[in-house]
Amino acid sequence: MITLGEGVDRAIRGHGIETYPNECCGALIGLEGVVTATFALPNTTEEGPRRRFLVRPLDYREAERRASEAGAELLGFYHSHPDHPARPSQYDLDHAWPFFSYIIVAVRGGVPEDMTSWRLREDRSAFDQEDIA
Hints:
By secondary structure, the protein is an alpha/beta fold. It has a single domain (3-128), classed as Cytidine Deaminase, domain 2 (3-Layer(aba) Sandwich), CATH 3.40.140.10. The chain has three helices and seven strands, in the order βαββαβαβββ. Strands 1-3-2-4-5-6-7 form a seven-stranded mixed β-sheet. It is globular, with a radius of gyration of 13 Å. The protein starts with a strand and ends with a strand. The mean pLDDT is 92.
């Protein structure tokens, strides 16, 4: 289970609205499965931000640095699926790491809807959905 601290749900959904019709992406920062902050990341994919997101190594390092400065750790990442369900795509599966949570918010017509969280299996074969509290 992943727990969203005060304002985290609103921040993720707000970022999805802000970037619609493109995907947003960001980092989840906290401790022991409790997300206390988000850190918006630029979506710099060369495949087009409408259907893809990419976390560059420089952005990953910056998210780790921010988490460390806050006395926390990087718990995972979030992104939006504009006009698509909040379920991981094959692209998401291909680019995920097994030790992080991945929150996806569906944004339909500029309005955030379902939000789900996923963890990659250690064998990288699939995601398992995790509860959000």
